[in-house]
């Protein structure tokens, strides 16, 4: 992924888990707004706690003692910053608390530019798609599609794809990392519902690009942007970038 896809943009991370990628992007690549969304409330709680970890890490880096010329401090040099003992963070958790945006504070600067929200991105029925307005420039959907299909079937995944398209502003991008079809089999018997959906799946991962660029969804083009190779077999997943065209373009 490239920094220019995110810098100054409004970004939604669907299925953010505990937020490590969300926070890393929010901190390093400076999106104007970064929203992490997950259906699991416990994961969202952990993601919010992880903001503290990222701030503590930042604070500890700032407090690293400066190199000295000799055994004593240089004359006229500012006193070294005092640091908290490592045992305190280990026993009491991260030291820094998330800063709360205040009037006059730049809301696009980390950590003010990131929030985590509990919710299901898969709408209950197709009719609700009509109410979806464009809000984002970038939507991430990484390692999510398998779980959507197993829990809500083909129709649930199609609804997610259509919602993502409508949720993007013209010119926006949808970044998709689908799991391989071979990985579904390992999870097919987790519940009766999952087993039933697994047996009925017709839209396979290798068909996602053609479906997303069809008239059923509407993306104007796509490209394969990454195919990790030096990774464990189960994590060698393609990453696609789908573009939403501007009105009047094809």
Defining key terms:
250 residues; alpha/beta; Rossmann fold; 7-stranded mixed sheet; 6 helices
CATH class of the largest domain: Alpha Beta
Globular, elongated, flat, extended or rod-shaped: what is the shape? globular
Domain tally: 2
How would you classify the quaternary structure?
Answer: single chain
Give me the CATH architecture of the largest domain, please: 3-Layer(aba) Sandwich
Q: What is the strand tally?
A: 7
Strand residues, percent: 15-25%
Task: Compute the CA-based radius of gyration.
Answer: 22 Å
Helical content band: 25-40%
In which order are the strands of the major sheet placed?
Answer: 3-2-1-4-5-7-6
Task: Give the integer mean of the pLDDT values.
Answer: 84
Uncertain residue ranges = 66-101
Order of helices and strands: EHEHHEEHEHHEE
Distance between the termini: 25 Å
CATH topology of the largest domain: Rossmann fold
């Amino acid at each position: 992924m490239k920094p220019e896809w995110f810098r100054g943009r409004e970004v939604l991370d669907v299925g953010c888990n505990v937020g490590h990628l969300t926070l890393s992007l929010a901190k390093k690549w400076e999106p104007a707004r970064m929203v992490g969304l997950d259906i699991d409330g416990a994961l969202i709680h952990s993601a919010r706690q992880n903001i503290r970890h990222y701030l503590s890490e930042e604070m500890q880096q700032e407090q690293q003692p400066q190199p000295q010329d000799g055994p004593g401090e240089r004359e006229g040099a500012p006193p070294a910053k005092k640091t908290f003992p490592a045992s305190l963070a280990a026993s009491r958790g991260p030291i820094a608390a998330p800063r709360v945006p205040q009037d006059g504070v730049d809301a696009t600067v980390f950590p003010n530019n990131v929030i985590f929200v509990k919710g299901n991105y898969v709408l209950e029925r197709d009719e609700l798609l009509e109410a979806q307005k464009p809000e984002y420039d970038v939507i991430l959907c990484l390692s999510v599609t398998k779980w959507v299909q197993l829990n809500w079937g083909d129709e649930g995944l199609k609804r997610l794809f259509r919602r993502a398209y409508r949720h993007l502003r013209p010119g926006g991008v949808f970044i998709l990392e689908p799991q391989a079809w071979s990985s579904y089999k390992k999870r097919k018997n987790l519940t009766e519902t999952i087993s039933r959906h697994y047996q009925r799946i017709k839209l396979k991962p290798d068909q996602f690009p053609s479906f997303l660029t069809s008239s059923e969804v509407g993306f104007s083009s796509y490209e394969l942007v990454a195919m990790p190779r030096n990774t464990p077999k189960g994590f060698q997943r393609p990453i696609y970038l789908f573009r939403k065209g501007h009105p009047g373009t094809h």
